[in-house]
Write a structure and sequence with these properties.
Blueprint (H helix, E strand, L loop, with lengths): L1 H30 L3 E2 L4 E2 L4 E2 L8 E2 L3 E3 L4 E2 L4 E2 L3 E3 L4 E2 L7 E4 L4 E5 L1 H4 L2
Parallel strand pairs: 1-4, 2-5, 3-6, 4-7, 5-8, 6-9, 8-10
Antiparallel strand pairs: 10-11
This protein binds coenzyme A.
Length: about 120
């Protein structure tokens, strides 16, 4: 019971920190030349490799799961969910769910995002 009282506010603070740090990670990657659209969430410990001059592009409305690594030169489309612990070593089309090492498109989300 006491642990619950102690940890509840800590989890709340952590979720705020995750969102704030995602915002700063986004700004950091944008400032380093990577094109990143609106409404993108980069989870904690997700890493975008900036080691090559041909930077990656990330579309809008993209979620990068925790511990994901995005290799240089890769393009991720709009409305994409990349699952936790994925290695994104190839381009990912718009409107899909993808995960794995190496990443594979798992589900088409065209119907979800169709206007
Ligand atoms: C990708 C994701 C959104 C898929 O969720 P979902 O559609 O509910 O998928 P399920 O949990 O029903 O899993 C379906 C199958 O995919 C597999 N799977 C799900 N996510 C996976 C991942 N990231 N890597 C490898 N396999 C994965 C499951 O093991 C399961 O396999 P099975 O059918 O053989 O049992 C989710 O698993 C995920 O990775 N979320 C991100 C979590 C995260 O980063 N949180 C931090 C936020 S700060």
């Amino acid at each position: 019971m006491i642990l619950k009282i102690i940890f509840k506010p800590l989890y709340f603070l952590k979720s705020i920190w995750d969102n704030v740090s995602s915002y700063f990670r986004l700004q950091f990657y944008r400032n380093s030349g990577i094109k990143i659209g609106e409404k993108v969430f980069i989870s904690p410990k997700a890493f975008i490799d900036r080691s090559k001059p041909n930077m990656i592009t990330i579309g809008k409305n993209v979620f990068l799961g925790v511990n994901t690594v995005v290799m240089p030169g890769v393009t991720i489309g709009d409305n994409v969910i990349i699952g936790a612990m994925s290695l994104v070593d190839k381009d990912i089309p718009s409107n899909c769910l993808a995960y794995g090492i190496p990443v594979k498109k798992v589900k088409n989300l065209n119907r979800v995002f169709k206007k």
